[in-house]
Specification:
- This protein is an alpha/beta fold.
- The protein contains 10 helices and 8 strands.
- Strand 6, helix 9 and strand 7 form a beta-alpha-beta unit.
- The protein is globular and about 50 Å long.
């Protein structure tokens, strides 16, 4: 089995619609794909209607969190999307994305960049607006050559010249909320140093003690030495070690299935979940 547990659609900052994402996952030879848009489950319905035969869809979400001033992302899998407390918190995070984007655009304009809300809004479309949309605007304007080049101290990285904060969850609270909704939690790309400061391994141990299920080990932002270190840490802490592409369509260079999760790890994730269950494809819609 080929299992990719981290992918984004136009419901947040990917460039594939949810329907396109599941069809592209099947075309890439995947058996399982997780839809994990940022702070939203808005792509669920479309993705579920389009899942082709031979592919299983795992519903999920990537929650924005912050610990001691350091941003981090928490992947949540197979939770009940209707659970009210978790739904309320994800709405607070998502709704704060728009004023935050306006603030970052204002800082960029102060730096002499002729970016506008209209441009960023056009790029985001119906998705939950985020930094990658602003980064794409910077690429369009010729300010940076690629989206990843916008995530530096000069521009949009945590603490960067154009950075602005938004409402983010305490990761311990995120774990509690997801668990209460019957879901499973995995710390996304925990050592992606190119994105900015990372939480220390001592904090990962504390999160494990609080119920964290796993850490994303195999990821494009982790080199081979980092992956080996994280895999060993997962073993020491009794955490599941996952692998994922973090696919964003054409917005990033990663490909669906570039990194994958071991079937035994996937099986353990599904065994732990009680809020929702993987959905095997029934043929899907053809024209969405």
């Amino acid at each position: 089995m080929r299992i990719d547990l981290h992918a984004h659609s136009t419901a947040s900052d990917g460039t594939d619609t949810p329907a396109e994402l599941v069809r592209n996952a099947a075309a890439a030879g995947l058996d399982v794909v997780a839809l994990t848009d940022h702070d939203t489950v808005g792509g669920y319905t479309e993705a579920l209607a389009a899942v082709p035969h031979g592919l299983t869809l795992v519903t999920g979400m990537e929650l924005s969190c912050r610990l001691d001033g350091i941003g981090m992302h928490m992947l949540a899998y197979l939770f009940d999307p209707e659970e009210p407390e978790l739904a309320r918190e994800r709405e607070l995070v998502r709704d704060d994305r728009t004023p935050r984007a306006h603030a970052m655009i204002g800082k960029l304009r102060e730096l002499g960049v002729d970016v506008t809300w209209e441009q960023v809004s056009r790029i985001a479309g119906e998705g939950s607006v985020g930094r990658p949309h602003i980064a794409t605007a910077l690429v369009e304007l010729g300010v940076v050559p690629s989206v990843s080049d916008a995530f530096t101290a000069d521009w949009l990285a945590d603490g960067g010249r154009a950075y602005a904060e938004k409402h983010e969850l305490d990761p311990f609270e995120a774990i509690r909320l997801v668990k209460a909704a019957g879901g499973v939690t995995v710390f996304a790309h925990p050592a992606a140093v190119k994105r900015g400061r990372c939480v220390p391994e001592s904090a990962i141990a504390e999160l494990a003690s609080a119920g964290l299920d796993g850490i994303e080990v195999d990821h494009m932002d982790h080199d081979s030495d980092t992956r080996a270190r994280l895999r060993a840490l997962a073993g020491e802490l009794g955490l599941l070690a996952t692998g994922s592409s973090d696919y964003h369509g054409s917005r990033k260079t990663c490909r669906l299935g570039e990194y994958t999760t071991d079937p035994e790890i996937y099986g353990e994730i599904t065994r732990r979940a009680t809020g929702a269950f993987p959905v095997p494809g029934a043929g899907g819609a053809t024209g969405a």
